[in-house]
Amino acid sequence: MHAVYNGEITLAALSLIVWIGSAQAAPNPATDATRKANDAMANYLPFYNKQDFEDVHRGFIADLPSPVIKGKAGNTVIDLSQYDFLKKKGPVPATVNPSLWRQSQLLATSGLFKVVNGIYQVRNIDLANITFIRGEKGWVVIDPLTSTETAKAALDLINSKVENLPVTGVIFTHSHIDHFAGIRAIVDEKDVRSGKVPLIAPDGFMEEAVSENIFAGNVMSRRASYMYGNLLPRSPQGNVGDGLGLTTAAGNITLIEPNKLIKKTGETLTVDGVDLVFLMAPDTEAPAEMLFYFPQYKAIDLAEDANHTLHNILTLRGAKVRSAQKWSSALSQVIDMWGKDAVVSFGSHHWPQWGNQHVVEHLEKQRDLYKYINDQTLRMANQGLTMNEIAEQFVLPDSLAKEFYNRGYYGNLKHNVRATYQLYLGFWDANPANFDPLPPVEEAKKYVEMVGANKMIATAKAAYNKGEYRWAATVANKVVFADPTNQLARNVEADALEQMGYQAESGPVRNFYLSGAQELRGGMKKMAPSNASSHDIIRGMTLDSFLDFLAIHLNGPKVGDKSYAYNLRFPDIKTEYVLTVKNGVMNYSKGKQMDKADGTVTLNRSTLDDIAMGKLKLGNLTESGDVTITGDKAKFKEMLSNFDKFDFWFAIAEP
């Protein structure tokens, strides 16, 4: 096999013949540079401290009857046995950062645990924990996981191993899907609607729970396939978990609207004899989030604001940027309100802290972690350093950095620093030369035209051989974007990404690197994408939200200067709108009808839900018996042709 460029075999090409011949789809071993980097981590952190391994097993009652949870159709919702390799004793694999390996081993401990008498958790059978509080008559349940299948498995486990009781209350700590989507396995909606079972959530819960999973749902889900390593093998060369949990469940997503919203800090509530005091924490880990205290247990529920990891100021899957300052402030309030008396704290992920000293120390150092990120990023920015310069120079003090619960297993320090800079100053570094950069493909082609593909690949290979993986990936990626068919460049970049993945302490960062390497080597491997747009979430959207969602699909350039105007009528909910398309945007007005509209469309709200779920195609509305159209039907069909359908499988590691 040889590589020929411009009719000649160059020295650069000759040096690459062995390279491409040795690059296989199978993972490479760790290089000497990666071994040294991982050894340095092992020598820096206090691995002699085994307290977490004692705490993660404390209160263990029972494991699931089977590590595999299946759906009604026989589909596998989650298979925990895929991570059994984490339980094997022996040296840390050279292909995994030893700090991440330690975290993943802790997360491989699953089952039912007693926190204190009356408080129980089922951990690590899904991305999050589900918590059960013993009330006077039944279980008060906190955060019913990502799917009905895992939530049911948890409820069955505690009912069989502790006490068989009805569910008498449910609490959603915040608006992320792994904390509410199993709800229909826990309670009947009619009991919530009647008020028989209180379903409690922070103010703004429904709006945030629905909007985050809908408006940017397609791109967010695609990026999440990288973040959670969905396409990677579970192995020391692949997916070892994501630092927050091992993996996400792929089951039935549900949602029931809460019947009780908590709106202010200090608000109290008694649920089935269990007293609660709430603290509002919006715009911390989630836009709608709350923490709370159980006075009779002297126990703090930390939701997801204090964990055994540095969390995300900006998650890699994409979301609204969070405020490290508000996050720190919320934890400071927790200490002020309950730190004096609390004897245990637990959260929606990981394992608890026991004893007042440990509870407070954990809170203080997690608080100071986020405060340090916020304040020092701004200090350096005010000195004129740019986003990437700050991230490169940023170092935590040892008093924070050497605490395992402050390590970047889920979040990543550099990424969080960049996110904090973005929150205050935006993504631009203020350098005029960077104000309007060329698009990636055009820029890459000009680099290759200037330097030459052969020389760039040789440079990337040389950087790889010196352990300069960041530079190797950067240079090779330019060639890939200039010519995606250049397998030489793809292989060099893949090998560099792979070694960076092996060194990454963050599970999501590792998964991104390794997913990119896999895609560069073997092309895009499609699987059934996860779909957060379940019937319950679609149904939970207001009509305004649904129309905003529809407007996102309008192809403005395709519409151009064309204009459309239609009256919309929804008999089942007795609501009317005027919908207009003009100037390349879609607008709507509620409670209005237009005399000179192009026509009137009459349909039930439930028909819109069917469109969103894919049961009814938007372009076929004029043929649907569920829709009545008067006026210009042809123009209405023409208008619908201007709405895009989003393809989940867009490229990430290449153009």
Largest sheet features: 8 strands, mixed
Structural class: alpha+beta
Task: Write out the strand line-up for the largest beta sheet, numbering strands in chain order.
Answer: 1-4-5-6-7-8-9-10
Mean pLDDT, as a whole number? 92
The span between the termini is 27 Å
How many extended strands? Answer: 21
Rg: 27 Å
Give the proportion of residues in helices. 25-40%
Question: How many helical elements?
Answer: 23
Beta-strand residue percentage: 5-15%
Q: What's the overall geometry?
A: globular
Which consecutive residue ranges, at least 5 long each, have pLDDT under 50? 1-24
Search tags:
single chain; 655 residues; alpha+beta; 8-stranded mixed β-sheet; 6-stranded mixed β-sheet; 23 helices; globular
3D architecture notes:
This protein has 655 residues and is α+β, with helices and mostly antiparallel strands. An 8-stranded mixed β-sheet has the order 1-4-5-6-7-8-9-10, with helices on one face. Strands 11-12-13-14-15-16 form a 6-stranded mixed β-sheet. The chain starts with 10 loop residues before the first helix and ends in a 15-residue tail after the last helix. The relative contact order is 0.10.
What is shown here, in short?
The chain is 39% helix and 15% strand. The protein has 23 helices and 21 strands. It is globular, with a radius of gyration of 27 Å.
Describe the SSE topology.
Elements: H1 11-22, H2 32-44, H3 51-57, E1 60-62, E2 68-70, E3 76-79, H4 98-107, E4 111-116, E5 119-123, E6 130-134, E7 139-142, H5 148-161, E8 167-171, H6 189-193, E9 199-202, H7 205-214, H8 217-227, E10 260-262, E11 268-271, E12 274-280, E13 290-294, E14 299-301, H9 324-338, E15 344-346, E16 353-354, H10 356-382, H11 387-393, H12 398-401, H13 413-425, H14 440-451, H15 453-465, H16 469-482, H17 487-503, H18 507-522, H19 535-539, H20 543-552, H21 556-559, E17 564-570, E18 575-582, E19 585-590, E20 599-602, H22 605-612, E21 628-631, H23 633-640
Parallel strand pairs: 7-8, 8-9, 9-10, 14-15, 17-20
Antiparallel strand pairs: 1-4, 2-3, 4-5, 5-6, 6-7, 11-12, 12-13, 13-14, 15-16, 17-18, 18-19, 20-21
Helix pairs in contact: 1-15, 2-17, 9-10, 10-13, 11-13, 14-16, 15-16, 15-17, 16-17, 17-18
